[in-house]
Amino acid sequence: MNILVINSGSSSLKYQLYNMTDESVLAKGLVERIGMDSSILNHKPTGKQEVTEVSEILEHNTAIRKVLAILTDKEHGVIESIKEINAVGHRVVHGGEYFKASALVDADAKTKIRQLFDLAPLHNPAAMMGISASETNMPGVPQVVVFDTAFHQTMPEKAYMYAIPRVLYNKYKVRRYGAHGTSHDFVSKAAAEYLDRPLEDLKIITCHIGNGASVTAVQGGVSVDTSMGMTPLEGLMMGTRSGDLDPAVVPYVMNKEELSVGEVNSMLNKHSGLLAISGVSSDMRDIIDGAEKGEPNSTLAFEMYEYRLRKYIGSYAAAMNGVDAIVFTAGVGENASLLRERVLNNLTFLGIELDAEANKVRSGDPRRISTADSKVQVLVVPTNEELVIARDTHRIVQGING
Ligand SMILES: Nc1ncnc2c1ncn2[C@@H]1O[C@H](COP(=O)(O)OP(=O)(O)O)[C@@H](O)[C@H]1O
Ligand SMILES: CC(=O)OP(=O)(O)O
Ligand SMILES: [Mg+2]
Q1: Which of 114, 231, 248, 325 has its CA 20 to 30 A from that of 267?
Q2: Which residues make beta-bridge pairs with 368?
Q3: Residue 37: which domain range?
Q4: Residue 304 to residues 298, 323, 374, Cα–Cα distance (Å)
C-alpha cells in the first residue's frame, strides 16, 4: 500500500510518499510560497535527481495538483498513476478535545476541524485546505487525520486548566492542548528502546525544537505536561513566536499602539522570538553565526532561548519529581550542538554529565550525548512525524478495508 503524507502550512505544503510494505520513502518534497508571486516546488524522488520548479501556485488545490503531477511524471516521478496512491494522511495541529487519536476523514471530522479554526488560526485552516484539495484531486481515496494535540489529551486537569473563570472553559474550551504530540510520542518511545528500558518505568523530558518548539514531560509513556497551550504560542521562545509573557502585556500594547486583535496576534506569532530579539533572523543557524561573531543582539537572542529552554526542563523535572532521560529533537534540537552544550552544562545539579565529544557527532540515528554513567541520560533522537502519520493512516485504512 502506498500512502501520501501531507503537512500543510499556511503558505507551504510538505509531502512524503511511502511504500508501506517496507516503510520506504518513494519521494518527498516541499511546495513553498503558496499564494505569493513565485512558488517553489522542490521534489526529491528516491534514487533519482532532485528537481526544483518555480511557477505560480495560488492555492493548495494547485499545489496538490503539481505534487500529483510530479509524482507521476515520466522523468521525475516514482509511480505511474495517481491510482497507486491508496490513502492520504494529513497532519492537523489542533484536534481540541474531540480527537484523542487519529481518525478517518468524514463529514463529522471536517466539521470538528473547522470548529477548531479559532484555536489554531495559523495551522488548522491550512490543514483543511490540504484535505479539501486532496479530496478534489484524489476522489474516493481514504484520508486520515493525525493530530498534534492527541498525545497530550492525557494531561491531568491541573496541567491543562488556566486559572481564569471556568465559564471560559465551559463556553469556549479555553484550556491548554499542547502540540507536536506526534513527535513527542515518537521520540519518547524511541528513547526507551535505545535505553533498552520499559517506557512505563521512565520519566522523560522531550524537547522538540524546530521552527515551533515545545517541551513535554512524558511519564510512563504518556504526556503529563507540555509547554504549548491553547495555541502553539505559549511556552518556549521560538523562531518568530514570543512564547510565555505576562498576559497584561497584550492589552497594554494594544492600547498604546492601537493594535487590533489580528495585529497583536501577528506580532506575537510572526514578529517575535529569535527574529525580534536578534533583529536579523528566525533561523538558529544565523543566530549562532551572529553570536559567534560577538554580535550583541544575536548573543542575547541565543542566551534568552537557551535560558528559557533550561527553565522548562527544570520545571518538568519538578513536575515529575525526577527525570531519567532528556531527549533533543527537530531541526534545532538535532543539529545545534552549541545550544545543547549550554543547556546541559547548566543542569549539572540534576546529575547530568555531558559527553562533549559525543555531542559534536552529526548523525541521522538516535545517539547518547551524556556519559553512560550520567544520572540522567541525554539523547538526540531524530524525529519522524511523517512516518508516524503514515503508520496511523495505514492502520486506520486497513481497519476499514478488513
Ligand atoms: N545546523 C543547524 N544548527 C542550528 N539550527 C539548525 C540547523 N539546521 C537546522 N536548524 C534549525 O531548524 C529549524 C527548522 O526546524 P524544523 O524541525 O525543520 O522545523 P519545522 O518542521 O517547524 O519547519 C530552522 O529554523 C533552523 O533554525
Ligand atoms: C504546532 C507548531 O508549532 O508546528 P510547527 O513547529 O510545524 O510550526
Ligand atoms: Mg516541524
Answers
A1: 114
A2: 379
A3: 2-147
A4: 10, 23, 26
Q: Which residues contact 138 (CB under 8 A, 6 or more apart)?
A: 68, 82, 85, 88
Condensed to tens digits (0 to 9), the pLDDT of residues 40-89 reads: 999 999 999 999 999 999 999 999 999 999 999 999 999 999 999 999 99
User: What ipTM goes with this model?
Assistant: 0.97
Active site residue: 73, 106, 108, 148, which one?
148
Q: Evaluate whether 144 touches 87 at the Cβ level (below 8 Å).
A: yes
Ligand 2 nearest atom to the CA of residue 330, by list position = 6
How many angstroms is it from 73 CA to the middle of ligand 1?
30
Q: Is 271 part of a structural domain of the chain? A: yes
Three cell numbers, residue 54: 518555480
237 annotated ligand-binding residue: no
Helix or strand run (H / E) with residue 205: strand 203-209
> Closest by alpha carbon to 313, among 325, 303, 304?
325
DSSP-derived letter for residue 78 is S
Rg for the chain, CA atoms, rounded: 21
Buried-state track 297-308, b at ≥16 Cβ within 10 A, e below 16: ebbebbebbbeb
Strands 87-92 and 51-55 come out as unpaired
> If you measure from the C-alpha of residue 75 to the centroid of ligand 2, how many angstroms do you get, rounded to a whole number?
33
Query: Residues 220, 326: one domain?
Result: yes
d(CA 304, CA 310): 10
Residue 139 Cα to ligand 1 midpoint, Å, equals: 35
* CATH code assigned at 238: 3.30.420.40
Cα angle at 175 between 173 and 176, to 5 degrees? 140
For ligand 2, pick from 119, 124, 211, 242 the residue to mutate: most ligand atoms within 8 Å of CB: 211
Q: Report the run of H or E that residue 124 belongs to, with start and end.
A: helix 124-137
91 marked as part of a ligand binding site: yes
Q: Is 148 a catalytic residue?
A: yes
- Report pLDDT digits (tens) over 194-219: 999 999 999 999 999 998 999 999 99
Annotate 260-291 with b (16+ C-beta within 10 A) or e (fewer): eeeebbbbbbeebbbbbbbebbbbbebbbebb
**Which three-class secondary structure state does DSSP give residue 220?**
coil
Do residues 217 and 346 share a domain? yes
